[in-house]
Specification:
single chain; about 200 residues; alpha+beta; Glutaredoxin; 2 domains; 4 strands; about 55% helix; about 5% strand
């Protein structure tokens, strides 16, 4: 399989962590849809990363679709439970974490526009989403060791990826101080090689 993405994309990082947790070999192709020479739109009509190209050249896109596919490829290290209430909870955590990333990315991109074209109100709205997302994560996590209680799951990968993206792009948001339980979870996740080996960078 071939994964197309970048080192800065939190969604690509999420997929890379899942591939590592599942011990699946793949080719990592660096490509950003923001460059003039990108081939991403030729593979994903939405022009977004990551894209997982299967052995038969079928492209899979949207990180949530990709990670669920990967988890079903091999039986080892299952990250999603069987279809039931617990699976819905895991996917809810993933939707929350991805939504936080969506807001953070939107704020970042708006901030890169020429100053006179930026919408301060839009940036504030995205920042509010991030703040509310962090508050909700912290309340839901409580004193649990992992998002789903005592066992590691896709929920932790999604949350860890989102928190890592905030550390990378918005170091001024001191979520580790304001939400120490999230900081404790993130530090625990960083002890796992897939997290430490995929820290985002330019």
């Amino acid at each position: 399989m071939k994964l197309i993405g970048s080192h800065t994309s939190p969604y690509t990082r999420k997929v890379r962590i899942v591939l590592a947790e599942k011990k699946i070999d793949y080719e990592f192709v660096i490509d950003s849809p923001w460059t003039d020479v990108s081939t991403v739109p030729d593979i994903n009509p939405l022009g977004k990363i990551p894209v997982l190209v299967l052995d038969d050249n079928t492209p899979l896109f949207d990180s949530r679709v990709i990670v669920e596919y990967i988890d079903n490829v091999t039986p080892n290290n299952k990250l999603f439970p069987a279809p039931n209430r617990e699976r819905t909870e895991v996917k809810r955590w993933e939707a929350l974490a991805d939504g936080l990333c969506d807001a953070a990315v939107s704020a970042l991109l708006e901030g890169k526009r020429p100053k006179k074209e930026q919408s301060a109100g839009w940036i504030t709205r995205q920042q509010d989403k991030v703040a509310r997302g962090l508050d909700f994560m912290a309340r839901e996590l409580g004193e649990k060791s992992f998002c789903m209680g005592t066992h590691f799951s896709m929920a932790d990968i999604a949350v860890g990826t989102a928190l890592g993206y905030l550390r990378f792009r918005f170091p001024e948001i001191d979520w580790q101080a304001s939400h120490p339980n999230l900081g404790k979870l993130y530090d625990k996740l960083m002890l796992r090689p897939p997290f430490a080996d995929t820290v985002p960078h330019d």
